[in-house]
What we know:
The protein is α+β, with helices and mostly antiparallel strands. It has helices spanning 3-15, 21-34, 40-46, 51-61, 104-116, and strands at residues 66-72, 79-85, 97-101. It has a three-stranded antiparallel β-sheet with strand order 1-2-3. Helix 1 packs antiparallel against helix 2, helix 2 packs parallel to helix 5 (104-116) and helix 4 runs parallel beside helix 5 (104-116).
Amino acid sequence: MDAQALVALAEKIEQEPLYDAGLCKLAFDGVETKLPDVDQAMIRNGAMGGVDAVLMVIDHGLPGWAISLQGTASEVHGHWTCSLRRQIGRDDDPAMGVAKGPKLSNVMIAALLKALTRKDMR
């Protein structure tokens, strides 16, 4: 999946109010090709859409990166933002992946996809 397709998929996922197994499967198929060193079982678990599982994929795929989560914890009206940066505590380090939406795990998946499309990612 090329960068433009990954960004389009990320934008669709971040706007979904619920977890969508089909969309997340597509997303993590894309992640699998971009993060070949990450354990495939971990990627399959991430595709299940649980926050802990997605966090593990980000942690192993982008080691040492800062993960910033902000939002309103509301199952019905969640407003989440996830930002991924290369370094912790550096305001001048640009966010490489940013996503906003109503479901936390979806927003984390979308931010990861967006970060993986950046040419200067590593």
